[in-house]
Amino acid sequence: MSTKEAKEFTREDVAKHNTPDDLWIIIDSKVYDVTKFKNLHPGGINVFLTEDIPGEDATEAFYGLHRHEVLERPQYARLQIGTIAGEKSQLHGRIRGELSEVPYAEPTWLAKGYHSLYFNESHKRLQQAMREFVDEFIVPDAWAREDDGKRPTLSVLQKMGELNMNAMRMGPGKHLQGLTLMNGAVKPEEYDYFHELILNQEFSRISPRGYQDGFNGGMVIGLPPVMHFARPELRDRVMKEVLSGSKFISLAISEAFAGSDVSGLKTTAKKSEDGKFWIINGTKKWITNGTFSDYFTVGCKTEKGLTAILVERSDGVETKAIKTSYSSTAGTAYITFDNVKVPIENTLGPVDGGVFVILSNFNHERWVMVCASVQNQRKIVEECLKWINQRKAFGKPLSSQAVIRAKLAEMIARTESAQAWLENITHQMNNMSYKQQAELLAGPIALLKMYSTRSAQETARDAVQIFGGRGITQTGMGKIVEHYHRTVPFDALLGGAEDVLGDLGVRQAIKHLPKNARL
Ligand code: HEM
Question: What is the pTM of this model?
């Protein structure tokens, strides 16, 4: 703390500085000299000259209009000239790595006084290490990239590679053997789906949604077919490059012609005359990370079905950015394949058997999306709970309005029920073989994703009502709510549209009806 900040004043001292040429204010027991700043203030000069502000305590006025972080920005922090003697400031922003104490801001397993059947000490260690990493390295990069629209910074992704975070994002399994995970926070042999859930939920604490997808969303969905179906030589090379953060991969299935309906794809792969290459022609659309990917796991139409093929960026592959409602940080691309020559050895799984290769990762992919969707809703609950106490309307805090509290009740209930269902499914994943998961969890995961993304949209709508005009403003108090409301529909589309998933869940249930319950 500088000597200026350490200086102490009485409230009477501050009250003497109450003219436009000598203007001090108090915010949360801290004294600010805003004499010069008032001319530069983004909210205008006038607000500083109105009654009850010059020389007075402006805490309530300030917090009704600004996010706390404003006072932490260096250019504004230096306006503080001291503190009020004998008083302690009460309000502070998030401290790096710390849990939030706002009710419902953390899942119950992390909240003070609560218990969980599922999480143990290794989960807690990983959560703590992850939160510190995310707060220190990812959050600042995420907001900076959100502003300039560039891809996530390479050094951050490589740091993730060094800590083996990318490998952990691929779930439990052989690929973790022998690795030191997050500086030893968890041993490879103890790593389970709850550890992966933690990773996904800690990453989702980053607000900018384009960045959430930009930093290796493509890997999470594009690498599994390589891991499980590529020839060993190709698999080992590509996994090493991608998991270390030196190369990037995306899953290229959707087309302008077909989204959730993978059997309607039109991109073709035909064998060259000598049988040594695939010749690929066609287009792909909405490919996350596509603008900067080195590899593409592509779904192609072949003679008798669909084949998954790993395509390297090479002659004939072109990627163009698509302007979506979130930032270009996600690298969402339109891809054209023009007579692209790919070695036959790059075939992933059986020729004409690609539907299975692609579908085999759908459960995991959707489960990852649910982890993020629930955590994002939780963040909005926290934003709203804080805001309704901070903001006054009609002379009272918003929290005194029953209609506002009713909205919060719904938001909390939706978030907690989705998290509880998610934890239950995660527990099943830990205890089922891959085959059992495919058989028993495809329906529940599809239904959970439908439920969570639908809840998320309702929560976004409620949050905008609570924040009013600020909920549609990209700067200031409502920026997180505005961003969430604008980008939340993504979750309801990626990994299968909401209605398609709901229908899949019910069809699976019908399929499993016992004979004695059928007519
Ligand atoms: C050290 C004190 C202050 C600083 C550093 C500050 C800074 C800012 C900044 C950066 C903004 C732009 C929006 C944002 O990023 O949130 C802003 C907006 C604003 N400020 Fe301040 N401000 C201070 C004190 C005050 C006080 C005491 C009042 C009221 C009496 C006030 C009223 C406003 C208003 C009305 C806006 C526009 C808000 C909107 O468009 O929603 N500010 N201020």
Answer: 0.90
